Amino acid sequence: MSNLLYFxxxxxxxxxxxxxxxxxxxxxxxxxxxxxxxxxxxxxxxKYGISFHEYFYYDFAGKTAAxxxxxxxxxFMYRYQKRMNPPGKREMLADKHKFDRAFAEFMHRGIMNxxxxxxxxxxxxxxxxxxxxxxxxxxxxxxxxxxxxxxxDSHTAEWVYNEAREKQYDILEEFVQQxxxxxxxxxxxxxxxxxxxxxxxDGSVDVIGAxxxxxxxxxxxxxxxxxxxxxxxxxSGKVDSLGYSFDITQPLCEVHPVSGVKLVGFQIxxxxxxxxxxxxxxxxxxxxxxxxxxxxxxxxxxxxIEGNHDWGARVWQMPAGKGLKRLLEKYL
Length: 332
Description:
Blueprint: H1 3-13, H2 16-29, H3 34-48, H4 52-57, H5 65-68, H6 74-84, H7 91-94, H8 96-102, E1 111-112, H9 119-126, E2 131-135, E3 145-149, H10 157-167, E4 171-174, H11 180-185, E5 192-199, E6 205-214, E7 228-231, H12 271-284, E8 290-298, E9 301-308, H13 314-317, H14 326-329
Antiparallel strand pairs: 1-4, 2-3, 2-4, 5-6, 5-8, 6-7, 8-9
Helix pairs in contact: 1-3, 9-10
């Protein structure tokens, strides 16, 4: 796909309200002039395959041409992931039912399909639980996910059974009670690690990078829904950047905006176990070589939430403060 086709795709997918806000914010930050900035956004999309949003997320208005060329753009990532994860072999990651079966040893929570069982079986599953999660097997970006507060909202098994059918939720799973350190850090959401791996031709696995994703006021840590992300040092498991969001009009976060906990230096629990689990999962199958694993951490250890064949480079590059395309190019 040429950059011109990417440009047309960016026209289709862009959030124009957010772009307008980021455009005006950037005009105040850099004295470029409205038309100069406009044509720079257009030119970068055509030259680098960078999306309109990425232009602002990566602060391209303040970058040199050499610095801009270092970024793994949306266009580059599409080509890269198409080669590493051929479209015909992605189903194991794209379909959560197949993912759950393929990586069952890393799930560490109860999961069922409420559309294929009886109301009595749903009742057995939720018995004794405070919360459960309903979602669709083909959802993504925190969408089509519903946390059900059984006791707080007095929801019965019949209600859960009917809700799943009405909204076509085909996954019912236990709510993950996260590690106390992560609960204290960001109490309103399940906070996850995005751990990126690259499987080599000989079956060995490289670690590409890791980020901590946290929610703010919503019950999701996804940046598209208002969350923030920090870079994690892959050797120590400590946060080593400020918190970044997809709203560039907001300042970078030194502390979590809700809890006030300092971000830089925060130690991710069970880091050794997280690395080992993701490396083992990446080595299990050879169909998809470049995967972004979403990892949650319970009081007794880590578990996999999902694996992403189309993991976004934004969460990886934004908190790094620079382009990281060179780390991927060597695998091509």
